[in-house]
Amino acid sequence: MNRTVSFDDLVTEAKALLAQEGRRFMALAGAPGSGKSTTVEHLAEALAAEYPGQVAILPMDGFHYDDGVLHQMGRRPWKGAPDTFDVGGLRMTLNRLADPAEGAVAVPVFDRDLEISRGSARIIPAGVKLILVEGNYILLDQAPWDGLRPCFDTTVLIDVPEDELRRRLRARWVHFGLNEEEIAHKLDGNDLPNGHVVMQHSRADLTYQQE
């Protein structure tokens, strides 16, 4: 049964996973602008002193299709929608990370300034015991995303009011220099509709409600 938790509860849940044998995975999903990356970074920081070197972050954004591929698909204006990610690549990476025989694993990183994914840009060492996986769609109950579910030990959905999402997303696109027409497309043609998909079709053990 899903239950609502605080940030301190997330820390407690993460510590419970770290106390178990083997490598564990906590998945944190949310709409665009919900603060997934910030939440995960704060969670990793909260664990760092007690569990040095044992926690790593794996963002879904590293598995964006390249812009050239999106142009071929006719989906470049909708970059960030569920069908613009290499879900199979993410699943294979999670499988590799779950296999002790793999040792250290290289993972891709999305460069937001360049708007591209850089392959093998970061190494997750063999000694990491907990991987915090974050992304918009990783808990969707729709194919192919639902194929990720067996990879996760604990799942969290971050819940943020839509007016706050709109404020944060608008500030993001202003920061990147978009004009009003471009911002309107990003917000109402892409980001917020994608957020509705996330909140309506994600299934999680826990809901973290931000104030």
From TrEMBL:
<dbReference type="InterPro" id="IPR027417">
    <property type="entry name" value="P-loop_NTPase"/>
</dbReference>
<protein>
    <recommendedName>
        <fullName>Pantothenate kinase</fullName>
    </recommendedName>
</protein>
